[in-house]
Amino acid sequence: MDDLVTLLSAQGAAVVFLATLATRLGAPVPAAPFLIVAGGLSVGGQVSFAAVLAAALAGNILGDGAWFLAGRRWGYRVMRLLCRISLSADSCVRRSEAILGRWGGLSLIAAKFVPGVSVVAPPMAGALGMSNTRFLSYETVAALIWTLGFLMLGRLFHAAIQDVLSVLSNVGLTAAVVGTLVLAAFVAWRYRRRRIALAAEDIEQIEVGDLREAFAAGERPMLIDVRSAEGRALDPRAIPGAVGIGLRELPSQLAAFADGRELIVFCDCPNDESAIAAARVLMKAGLPRVRVLAGGLSAWAAAAALEEADEEAAPAGASCVAAHAA
């Protein structure tokens, strides 16, 4: 811990910039402790408060700006990719959609303090077409609030921080080992919970091709889009005839499914997690004819795009054959 104090005293601004940039890019680097310690050291003049503040702001803006531009370039897929690698992938999607849908640009401020969402909010803002000027304005305010919060916390409790650092420096390797074991246990617990949630042996699935064939044959199962209202507003893609009922609202809407039709639920989430959860809710309510659309909305959209491409290519191919015959 003495090495940390020495490093921050000598290269405070550079360390804070790198830690903040890494955090905003999504690396498992905790920037907050660096800011708190730097804030405490600034009381005694060991680091420059202004330099550390500027460094943290730069790290925030550059890191979030990179994801914002990625969202502008590749759209909603970037946000879903970030959530997919999360240990809480589906909750990451739902929370991100809820925050962005309700608060708009202010969500960039709120997201700074919501684990799992802070990295997702900038690309989603880019995917939604937020202007560069508006993003930069909200991002600067958000970064300022976030940075000042931790720096001022360090200044307020600078005496206690020195005591804690002294204790940790005495504990040394033991503290590092215990912290690593606790972190590993937490990750293992979250991973196990995710694997249990993904175990869907009790859920029957239907492929997009089979559903499209059923439509062509005149069958009309009830399609239920279990994305949140915010998610449907952010991503207006839909399957024709589908009814939008969010996962949370589903238990209160069970009476609408009493006509005996087959129910097919879908979402646009990693591993169809929301759709699987919805299917279990419906089956628990005594509705046996329930299936999950494998791949959800993205799989349906991909199949529709492929069909459109084939239809566009067909006339061109037919005209070439006709010209060759002539």
Topology:
Elements (H helix, E strand, L loop, with lengths): L1 H24 L5 H13 L5 H26 L1 H9 L4 H15 L3 H5 L9 H7 L4 H25 L1 H14 L1 H26 L5 E3 L1 H9 L5 E4 L3 H6 L8 E2 L18 E4 L6 H12 L5 E4 L2 H30 L1
Parallel strand pairs: 1-5, 2-3, 2-4, 4-5
Helix pairs in contact: 1-2, 1-3, 2-8, 2-9, 3-4, 3-7, 3-8, 4-5
Average of the residue pLDDT scores: 77
Q: Estimate the helix proportion, in percent.
A: 55-70%
Termini gap:
85 Å
Strand portion, in percent? 5-15%
Low-confidence parts: none
What does this entry look like structurally?
This protein is mainly alpha-helical. The protein has two domains: 2-174, no CATH class; 204-321, Rhodanese-like domain (Oxidized Rhodanese, domain 1, 3-Layer(aba) Sandwich). Helix content is 68%, strand content 5%. The protein contains 14 helices and five strands. It has helices at 2-25, 31-43, 49-74, 76-84, 89-103, 107-111, 121-127, 132-156, 158-171, 173-198, 208-216, 229-234, 273-284, 296-325, and strands at residues 204-206, 222-225, 243-244, 263-266, 290-293. It has a five-stranded parallel sheet. Helix 2 (31-43) packs across helix 9 (158-171) and helix 3 packs across helix 4. The longest helix is centred in the C-terminal third of the chain and has 30 residues, at 296-325. It is elongated. The N and C termini lie far apart (85 Å). The mean pLDDT is 77.
